[in-house]
Amino acid sequence: MEGYLSEWLNLLLRWFHVIVAIAWIGESFHFVAVDNSLKKPEDPEAEKRGVGGEYWCVHGGGFYNFQKYRVAPAVLPKSLHWSFIPSYSTALSGLALISVLYYWNASSYLIDRSVLDIPGWAGVLIGIAFLAGGWLVYDRLCKSKLGQDERKLGLAVAAYCVVAAFLLCHVFSGRGAFLHFGGMLALIMTANVFFVIIPGQREMVRAAQEGREVDPEPGRRGKQRSVHNTYFTLPVLFAMISNHYAVTYGSSWNWLVLLAIAASGALIRHFFVMRHRGEKHVWALAVSAVLLLAVFFGLMPAAPKAVAGVSNAELFAKAQRVIDARCVQCHAAKPSPQFGFPSPPKGVAFDTPEQIVANAQGIQQQVVVAKSMPLGNLTQMTDDERQTIATWISAGAKAK
């Protein structure tokens, strides 16, 4: 019953996180698209009212006219939409998820003793330090002289991301490192909203309400951070789903894989941002594709090789003995109660030879490449046993 309740808690928390994240990203993408699609107002009266740009569109059976003021309208409307609840909800639910899945079970998901042998509590403290420290370093860079030059600031932030990815992948398990990299960027995005964008907007509103001249600087800073947020989005989304793809985080060069795919995501986002401005930066898609292809071919497994003097049946029998001893406690039609799974994880069972052969690719990625299974190596699979499975798979992963 405890495992069943835990699974439902995980499901509902993750679902809520996805819902609010979609709301935040959708709203963010919409405003970025509007801001980059603004054209000079066609109505002279709009310019007199202080409108700096407008965006006409048709959607859902109606015409819409979005207008952006150079600073602020002469009279504020009674109702203003504030875009922050989805951002804060995403951050809080994300922190809850990382606490439940990675910090509560640090020895199982976060720590890989073959990467760095540290106790679970130390891993938790390091993880929190990276999540909080990412914002502190980023914010300091933005407030430095580099913040006055977008290109130099972009290079500095990119350099910090390189350092963070390298360190995380040499401290945590692959999946833990990727998750913390994405979490670090996501918290930077939320902190931008909380500490810079919303306070700046509130100051502009107060100035307009009090009849003071509106200082454009808070708006400039908010725009800068908003642009950064939109480029972080796709790298964050990849990091959040990466735990399902051991082929990415299981590589010995996983930090380069992480950076390549993150850069690819940022370039894809750049293409769409510039397209809204009427500029076709196709080169961004081309470079993104090159990066993805480089990762694809770099991680491609070697072709199967026959083992001289040993039949497929013998290789399979050895691999099956390892799987029976180390894996079926969880991956069976009825998992062992001591591991807390009411059903086999992801519906994958190894009760029969046919099931083992059918899941050979997943076994290779999770057991041989990433070494993320058995979970936390609770069944104490040895390197020799992993090699036994690898040999069977390299010979073609056949039962006979």
Automatic annotation (TrEMBL):
Ranges where the Cytochrome c domain occurs: 307-397
Membrane-crossing residue ranges in chain numbering: 12-34, 88-106, 118-141, 153-173, 179-198, 253-272, 284-303
InterPro entries named in the record: Cyt_c-like_dom, Cyt_c-like_dom_sf, Urate_ox_N
Domain of life: Bacteria
Single Gene Ontology MF annotation: electron transfer activity
Keywords for this protein: Heme, Iron, Membrane, Metal-binding, Transmembrane, Transmembrane helix
Name this protein carries in UniProt: Putative membrane protein
Protein's organism: Plasticicumulans lactativorans
